[in-house]
Specification:
141 residues; alpha+beta; 11 strands; two-stranded parallel sheet
Length: 141
């Protein structure tokens, strides 16, 4: 059975010459090791768009937790394996454009007895909170 390669990706059967979304077609993602559902959907769509008529669907493209893209065909010999770091690019994280806001419980201030602190921040950012005992908590938005 013939075997093909593209970067580090490798295919067998009718997937020996599968085209990967690399270079200008690479998918920009926030964290290549933890793709969001939307990023996974866009990556699958890129494989399907770049390989028309090859029988690719969202159902036969799997993105694994260990950073691989696995594609299986209808025939058992049709497989393709690639790696997320070959088909994604790091999306620049936006710089903070505003200070996070804190919702006060007593007028516009927090009370020393507050068990919960709420507020807003930039989506995807981490807000660092220093408590009265000088311990620090990092909280994702």
């Amino acid at each position: 059975m013939p075997t093909g390669t593209s970067l580090r990706g490798i295919g067998t059967g009718k997937f020996t010459d599968l085209i990967e979304p690399t270079g200008a077609n690479a998918i920009p993602v926030v964290d290549p090791q933890n793709l969001s559902n939307d990023e996974k959907r866009r990556l699958k769509a890129a494989y399907i768009r770049l390989n028309p008529g090859r029988g690719l669907t969202e159902r036969n493209i799997e993105i694994t937790d260990d950073g691989r893209v696995l594609i299986t065909g209808k025939r058992s010999g049709d497989t393709y394996k690639s790696y997320l770091d070959d088909v994604t690019t790091d999306l620049a994280r936006p710089a903070a454009t505003a200070e996070p806001t804190v919702n006060g419980t007593y007028e516009d201030k927090l009370s020393s007895t507050d068990a919960t602190i709420t507020g807003t921040g930039i989506p995807g950012a981490t807000i660092k909170v220093t408590l009265q005992d000088n311990s620090v908590q990092n909280n994702p938005c």
